[in-house]
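thought: fold this chain, then report.
action: predict
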Amino acid sequence: MNAVTLFAGAGGADIGLQRAGVKHLACVEGDANACATLRAAGFPAVHAWIGNPPPGSSLTGWRWDGGPVDLLWASPPCQPYSQAGKQLGADDPRDGWPATLEA
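observation:
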């Protein structure tokens, strides 16, 4: 089974998936330090914004253009909807749900 992970973070879910026998095709993450951690752990990290980057972002937008994927794992940021965040929902530029659903 092969997978693409979106909003991969530093790879916690990726480690679990790998231990379950899943092969990673791409681990997409917008944070450079998290990508460095993914790479150090041997994952195919892609430093990019999932979907269209917000205005002013230096990251490129990422869209899958590879072959078939058996599993799409996504962990979009919770801050746009969390009580710990500003609760801006869809108005928060970190809202990853639209890009997740598009993927």
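thought: worth noting. The first strand starts at residue 2 and ends at 6.
final: tokens above.
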